[in-house]
Amino acid sequence: MHEKHIKHQWRARLHEVIFEADTRSGKRFDVVLIIFILLSVAVVMLDSVQAFLAYALWFRIIEWFLTIAFTVEYILRLLAVRKPLAYARSFFGIIDLLAILPTYISLFLPGTHYLLIIRSLRVLRVFRVLKLVKYLKEANMLLLALRASRRKITVFLFSVLSLVLVLGSIMYIIEGEESGFTSIPRSVYWAIVTLTTVGYGDIAPSTAIGQSLAAFIMILGYCIIAVPTGIVSVELTRTMGERASTQVCPKCGAKGHDYDAVYCKYCSTKL
Amino acid sequence: MHEKHIKHQWRARLHEVIFEADTRSGKRFDVVLIIFILLSVAVVMLDSVQAFLAYALWFRIIEWFLTIAFTVEYILRLLAVRKPLAYARSFFGIIDLLAILPTYISLFLPGTHYLLIIRSLRVLRVFRVLKLVKYLKEANMLLLALRASRRKITVFLFSVLSLVLVLGSIMYIIEGEESGFTSIPRSVYWAIVTLTTVGYGDIAPSTAIGQSLAAFIMILGYCIIAVPTGIVSVELTRTMGERASTQVCPKCGAKGHDYDAVYCKYCSTKL
Amino acid sequence: MHEKHIKHQWRARLHEVIFEADTRSGKRFDVVLIIFILLSVAVVMLDSVQAFLAYALWFRIIEWFLTIAFTVEYILRLLAVRKPLAYARSFFGIIDLLAILPTYISLFLPGTHYLLIIRSLRVLRVFRVLKLVKYLKEANMLLLALRASRRKITVFLFSVLSLVLVLGSIMYIIEGEESGFTSIPRSVYWAIVTLTTVGYGDIAPSTAIGQSLAAFIMILGYCIIAVPTGIVSVELTRTMGERASTQVCPKCGAKGHDYDAVYCKYCSTKL
Amino acid sequence: MHEKHIKHQWRARLHEVIFEADTRSGKRFDVVLIIFILLSVAVVMLDSVQAFLAYALWFRIIEWFLTIAFTVEYILRLLAVRKPLAYARSFFGIIDLLAILPTYISLFLPGTHYLLIIRSLRVLRVFRVLKLVKYLKEANMLLLALRASRRKITVFLFSVLSLVLVLGSIMYIIEGEESGFTSIPRSVYWAIVTLTTVGYGDIAPSTAIGQSLAAFIMILGYCIIAVPTGIVSVELTRTMGERASTQVCPKCGAKGHDYDAVYCKYCSTKL
To answer: What are B145-148's contacts with CB under 8 Å, separation 24+?
Structure first.
């Protein structure tokens, strides 16, 4: 009994330090963690640059040190929560695991340690250290709006993909191999590059008909970019603007009262 | 009489399987259909890739098999509906016909079988298999908003086209043949590439005046992209936020009353 | 007296044919005019293409025929209105004059006849032939929204220009002559190309610091494109959404009535 | 006493001329100032162009003349205000200092005088000379909207940066050194170029998998550009459309009543 109590106390203390950021030690833990994450991302990035080849050994040492630190942190996180499985399955739980695996895998498969860059996703934890509640509320609002527009954007994407397939194939027939449209998949790739207004220029039409169709695709892309923007705008307005309650005045029947209204604003009856 | 009854029953059963997706066999039919369509699109795409030249015969066999299957399906669709002509003229009726024609035409005109990629448009049927009603409602909303902004976008496009013609011609006079502005149509093509912020870079101004005008066109394009976006946003807000109730005045038959209206605003009759 | 009456009748008839599109002859005149304009634009464009050099004489003949026709039309327009000067100073009056001048000027200054492309602006008259009132109303709405956001967009443009000057100069100092940043004006041109997400690729940073700054400029451009879009959206919503009149019910004092409301929707009092 | 009075008068007069634009001499001062600023920006820009090398001495003379003029102006500004430190720390105070420093520094460190381009930021003062109040109000509105969306845009930027890091690294592993993806930082740079739809084309994927991932990134970028646009639109709507009246309840002091409110919605007192 006593042992269990101590264990509970330890877990609560651990949880406070690792998962929360409103105590002093909790905040300090988070700041150290974020510095470690940023250091780790920097090491992975610089490790791939030719000019820093001389420091490769140092990078390897730091990487192993950080991986072990993150592994310990991951185990502590599992110990700190009551339901370790729930944490392991959550978004950040999976990211935390993916952030340590590549180093171990790279022992057997060289090259995979570049996947460590996935650690950069852990930096999203930074919002906890900033005035967390407000930022999380804003992030939530954005997610809500995106989720609400999920279906509309799916419909939009399917239509755009069909369009791009058809336009790319027509372009393949028109332009032929000389201008770089060597196959339909490549033409479809070009159509996406053009419709999204990216425009690399590695493939570009050279015939008059091809350029006319390209001009048409560009103007089309210029106009239909309005669709996702419109969708998100409307959903954001909804998510942020939901101020009016659905209450009706019992006396005069007026609607459109604010959520915080106590009396009807037209006839002063108590709501 | 009896024969006709049987025929009716057959047609109803056929209609259920082919056109609807809420029964088990109807759903299964749709899933098989979509797999066939995706397979067909994949075959047309891969057929154009140099690296898969060895499989050309296999692609041809699959293509003919699918074309015959789609032809049978098209005939069944015509039989399943009461007014075959109405179906044949509908959007999907035309797409269904266009999806089988190229293979037959390619017997006489080689190369046209690439047009089979139009089959990808048939994939839009996929929304029927997903929770169809909701997705179709969303698609409808988008279409409604686009249709409502039809006129505004026409005005916008005409203005942009005029602008692009004038700017392209001025650029032709300024830059001349050296920088790739070899003719007015080509300069207009460049103006579209620039205004829509695609920017291939295959044609780019080289004189100081040309670059200044180009910079002006870019900033213009950067600003007027706001116009279609604004139009679609506003129309989407309208379509989704429709405030007018569906109530009809019992006396004068007027529609379009606000949800909070108690009396008809045209004849003062109580709603 | 009699003569003046005849002249008035003539002018009214002329005005009806040339300036209006709701009578049969008025519409026919407009259709012929638009065909002439499109023909004229096509001739100017094709005239600049190397491949059509053989037809140069034909193009010259058609151009002179059309210029004379447009000159006659311009004179008739001046005669048809009561205040010729007011017409000559209006937007379309100036365009109409500019549409005939270059041919005459090209007698003295060769090459200027390419400016005839300005005739394409006359095509905007096409809206008169389509269901004119509605399209003009939509065009008006767009213009109103743009005019209302005039000041905000001016502020935005000034800020963007200052930004681009500073960023371009910093880039000039960082990158130097090797990567194509040969002068500050050229660097500013590059900054505009990047900020507006056009991205030709004729000038691109090659140093690590330069690429970092470029990445920063891109993300900045990606974000501030939101500003003009937001401005136009808001103004369009205002212009299109102004449905509520400012009338107040004389009995209950309720506001927010539609423009077409005759009775108060809350208490049925006549407005 | 008398001396102090004279000093006060002098300061008030100086303040009127230098800081305000509604008197005649104040306006004249501002116009001259803006001409000097524009001249200065032009000189710095032209000084960097190879073709104007012959005028280098003239540019140097003008630059020194303007720098001395701006130095005098800066000192006068410090004298004209009661709290010189407050001015020196304000946005324009810092810009004014930065606008003169580089010339003096360039005596010791050659090349730094290009930083004088920072003077272009001083041109933002131009709004004072135009119908100042209105333009400043509009600028304020834009700033307010941007400040209100600060947090949402921070969240958005952090997510985009994480995304770009992960996508760039995956691209580095897929494409390898041949196509120009020589290191992770360079791949991340490419990912930003692609996601923001800039698309230089200096680095472009060449493998099929790489192009597929690139197509995915483009469509992603095409869709998530909707997010900042939506955010700014909504905030601008809020800032511009503020519906709450400025009335304060005479009894409970509550604010934020709608324009159509008759009674305080918190305590039912008549407004």
So the answer is: B145/A230, B145/B232, B145/B235, B145/B236, B145/B238, B145/B239, B146/A227, B146/B232, B146/B235, B148/B235, B148/B238, B148/B239
What subunits touch chain C, counting only 3 or more CB pairs under 8 A?
A: A, B, D
Instruction: Name which of A194, A214, A234 is nearest B240 (Cβ-Cβ).
Output: A234
What span, in angstroms and rounded, lies between the C-alpha atoms of B253 and D31? 64
Inter-chain residue contact C211 with D241, CB threshold 8 Å: no
**In this complex, which of D114, D189, D241 lies closest to C184 when CB atoms are compared?**
D114
Q: What are the distances in angstroms from CA D59 to CA D40, D49, D64?
A: 9, 12, 9
CA distance C92 to C81: 14
CATH no. of B2-135? 1.20.120.350
CATH number among 1.25.40.10, 3.90.1580.10, 1.10.287.70, 3.90.1140.10, domain B136-271: 1.10.287.70
Mean pLDDT of C259-267: 56
pLDDT digits (tens), chain A, 271 positions: 455 666 677 788 888 777 776 778 877 887 888 888 888 888 888 887 878 888 888 888 888 888 888 889 889 888 888 888 888 888 778 878 887 887 787 777 766 666 666 666 666 555 555 544 556 677 777 788 788 888 788 888 888 888 888 888 888 888 877 778 888 888 889 999 999 888 888 888 888 888 999 999 998 888 888 888 888 888 877 776 554 444 556 666 665 555 445 566 566 666 6
CB contact under 8 A, C121 and B162: yes
pTM: 0.80
For residue A265, the chain D residues in CB contact (below 8 A) are 257-258, 260-263, 265
Residues of D in contact with B198 (CB under 8 A): 199
In angstroms, what separates the C-alpha of D215 from chain C's closest C-alpha?
17
Residues 6 or more apart from A257 whose CB is under 8 A from it?
Answer: A244, A245, A247, A249, A264, A265, A271, D265
Q: Do A197 and C197 touch (CB under 8 A)?
A: yes
Please give the sequence-ordered ranges of beta strands (E in DSSP) within C60-146, or none if there are none: none
Task: Give the closest of C201, C233, C254 to A201, CB-based.
Answer: C201
Q: Which residues are CB-neighbours of B185 under 8 A, at least 6 positions away? A: A208, A211, C45, C46, C48, C49
Rg for chain D (alpha carbons), in Å? 27
User: Any alpha helices (H) in D99-247, and if so which ranges?
Assistant: 101-105, 126-129, 132-148, 150-175, 184-195, 208-224, 226-241
Find, in chain D, the residue whose alpha carbon is nearest to that of C197: D198
Residue-range domain boundaries for chain D: 2-135, 136-271
Q: Which residues contact D134 (CB under 8 A, 6 or more apart)?
A: C151
ipTM, interface predicted TM-score of the complex: 0.77
Instruction: Evaluate whether C2-135 and C136-271 have a shared fold.
Output: no
| Cα–Cα distance measured from residue C136 to residue B151, given in angstroms and rounded to the nearest whole number | 10
CA distance A136 to chain B (A): 27
Phi-psi region of B219 (alpha: psi -120 to 50; beta: other; left: phi over 0): alpha
Cβ contacts of B114 on chain A, cutoff 8 Å: 169, 172-173, 184
> Which 3 state secondary structure label does DSSP give A83?
coil
Helix residue ranges, H only, A48-149: 56-80, 84-89, 91-98, 101-105, 126-129, 132-148
CA D220 to chain centre: 28
Residue B258: helix, strand or coil by DSSP?
Answer: strand
Nearest to C233 among A198, A233, A254 (CB): A233
Among the partner residues B198, B200, B229, nearest to D229 by beta-carbon distance = B229
Q: H or E element: which one contains D203?
A: none
What span, in angstroms and rounded, lies between the C-alpha atoms of B165 and B217?
12
Say which residue the tokens 């009661």 belong to.
D82
Which of C177, C195, C219 is best to mutate for the D interface (most D CBs within 10 A)? C219
